[in-house]
Structure formats: C-alpha cells, structure tokens
From TrEMBL:
Full protein name: Bifunctional ADP-heptose synthase
Keyword Kinase annotated: yes
Gene3D superfamilies hit by this protein: 3.40.1190.20
PANTHER family the record matches: BIFUNCTIONAL PROTEIN HLDE (PTHR46969)
Start and end residues of each Carbohydrate kinase PfkB domain: 43-318
One Pfam assignment: PfkB
Keyword entries, A-Z: Kinase, Transferase
Source species, domain of life: Bacteria
SUPFAM superfamilies: Ribokinase-like
GO cellular component: cytosol
Length: 334
C-alpha cells in the first residue's frame, strides 16, 4: 500500500547521487516593479523599480534541483563571453552545481530571458512582459568538441546523464550520439526531457515529454486511457526506450515501460497554480534521482507529481529542496 511515510523514506536515497545535466543554459532575469500610474506616453502601466534577481533557467534548472534534493550535479552547456554568462556561472556555483563543463562560445550570447513583473502589497506578482535574447544555431566546431570531450570524461564519474533540450542548439545529433556511446560503455542511464523532438533520443533509457509534444509526434489526440496506453506502448517501442513518461499537467503523469506495463498517476491533491515555470524541470530531476536510487517506477511518479505541485505554487523558475518535497509528501493521506 502506498503511504506518505513510504514515499518520504525514499528521499534519503537521493543523497550523493550524481548526474551530469546536458542542455541549453538560460540566464533568467526578473525585474520587479510596483504599479504606480498610467503612462502619458502610451496606455500602459508604469512600474516603479523595486528589485532585480537572477535565476538559473533552462537546463540549469534540473541541475539546481538535483543538488537541492541532495544529489550532485555537473552542468554541461554553453554560455557567451558576456555579463549574463558570468552571472549565470556565479549563480550555479552558489547553488553547488559543478560548472567545469560550461563552455564559452565567443560566437553567441548567453541565452537571456528577461521578465518584467508587477508586484503589489496584497496581490501575487504578475508577469507584464518577457523579452528573450537567444541564438538557436546548433553548436559545432571547437565548442562542440569541448562539450563532447567533457561528456566522455565525466560519464564514468556519474550515475546518470540527463538531457534537458530547450532548442537552443546544444542537444544535437553528435552530442546525443557521443552520450549513447559512452553510456553503453559504462552502463550509464540516459534520462531525457525532450521538449518534443522524441525521435532524436532513440535508445535512451527514460524519455519524458508533455501531452502536447506527444500528440504532435504521434499525429493524433490522446483522448482516453485506452488510447494513452496503446500510444505510449507504440512510443516506447519506436524509441527503443526502457520507459516513456508523459506529463499531463493537472491530470498527473502517465508512464509505460518496455514490458508494456502502463499506469497513470493522478495528482494527489491539486494545488492552486501560481506559475507553471520550472515544474517540468523539477519532475525530470526527481525522476532521474529516483531512477539511479532504484525507486520503484510507480512510486517515483508519485514523488515527481508532488515535486511539480510544490513548484507551481512559487513564482518563476523555482528550485525544489528536499525539505519542500518532504513537507508536500507529508500532506498525502496514508
């Protein structure tokens, strides 16, 4: 029988588990302001500046979550030779993420997402605008060589490789091929947050996508559990994966393994949603740690669901700490 105590007892197993996170590194910048008046220049609200904060985003979010949950994380990706890149490295280091695998690409800027947020004394902060500065050209040449070389060197020291693909050019064919080769040599699992390009990740261990991404790949809607089970078995077979995971937002998580076993785990106690940013990153971090800790798959999905519930109650790309997850699990009945 599944109980809160049983799930909470898995959390110490995350301690010291080591993951190398490969993907697109984002410098998430938040400018906070208090609404003061309507501008005379245009029919828009004027915000009086209050604060600025930097949060590691993109593929850095799973790495930060791994560390916050008790594991160890090596970050592998690309930054530019600029101030946002320096700030991002400092933010990662302060959170305990190893940044030795972060390569400077002098031909592109650090990916930056600037969010302007209005906050008041008695209301939850609201995004007013977001400005993205990103180059999505695939990496190549010396930058690619450095990434692949580092991945080959670090894999013998880690328990898992985690791909977090945000479509900014790092997670591409040659990097994936190198990971598959070295993972086969050391029997290292590859965990994937695919962001839609599922066919790129054939032969990886566990592949996660959301409902819209799965339906886009399959070419039809997943309207009920029977269709889900059939479609996910097809996905698992075509992708030659051990496990396929589909996140379904407020409806929870569906999972199938290579043996054909399908199950759906609903959200135990739906929470008020403040900001969904970062929920998928928390889910994949928990699934990766649970996999290397040998947590039973169905129990791992309950842990991942609870992690997502914690993050959606926070503003921005929030990190989930072990104490947060332990507290959330404590709310479950049983």
């Amino acid at each position: 029988m599944l109980t809160s105590e049983r799930l909470r007892n898995y959390l110490p197993l995350f301690e010291g588990k080591c993951v190398v996170v490969v993907g697109d590194l984002y410098h998430d910048e938040y400018i906070m302001g208090k609404p003061s008046r309507i501008s005379r220049e245009a029919p828009i609200v004027v915000l009086e500046y209050r604060s600025r904060r930097i949060v590691p985003g993109g593929a850095t979010a799973p790495a930060c979550n791994v560390v916050a949950l008790g594991g160890k994380a090596y970050q592998l990706g690309v930054i530019g030779n600029d101030a946002p890149g320096s700030e991002l490295l400092e933010a990662l280091s302060s959170r305990g993420v190893n940044i030795d695998g972060c390569v400077v690409d002098y031909a592109r800027p650090t990916t930056n997402k600037l969010r302007v947020v209005a906050e008041g004394d008695h209301i939850f902060p609201q995004q007013v605008a977001r400005i993205d500065h990103a180059v999505r050209t695939p990496i190549n040449g010396e930058v690619e060589r450095q990434l692949v070389d580092y991945l080959r060197r670090i894999t013998p020291q880690v328990d898992a490789i985690l791909f977090s693909d945000y479509k900014c050019g790092v997670v591409q064919e040659r990097v994936i091929a190198a990971a598959l080769e070295v993972a086969a040599e050391y029997n290292t699992p590859i965990i994937v947050d695919s962001q839609g390009d599922l066919s790129n990740f054939r032969r990886c261990t566990l592949i996660k996508c959301n409902l819209q991404e799965a339906e886009t790949y399959l070419g039809f809607a997943l309207e009920n559990e029977t269709i889900f089970a059939e479609a996910m078995n097809r996905l698992c077979s075509e992708l030659q994966a051990q496990v396929v995971v589909i996140t379904r937002g407020a409806d929870g998580i569906s999972v199938v393994d290579a043996s054909g076993q399908y199950f759906h785990t609903p959200v135990a106690a739906p929470s008020e949603v403040f900001d969904v940013t970062g929920a998928g990153d928390a889910v994949i971090a928990v699934l990766a740690l649970a996999w290397v800790a040998k947590v039973p798959l169905q129990d791992a999905t309950h842990l991942a669901n609870s992690a997502g519930q914690v993050v959606i109650q926070k503003l921005g790309n929030a990190t989930i700490y072990r104490r947060d997850l332990d507290e959330e699990l404590g709310k479950l009945r049983g």
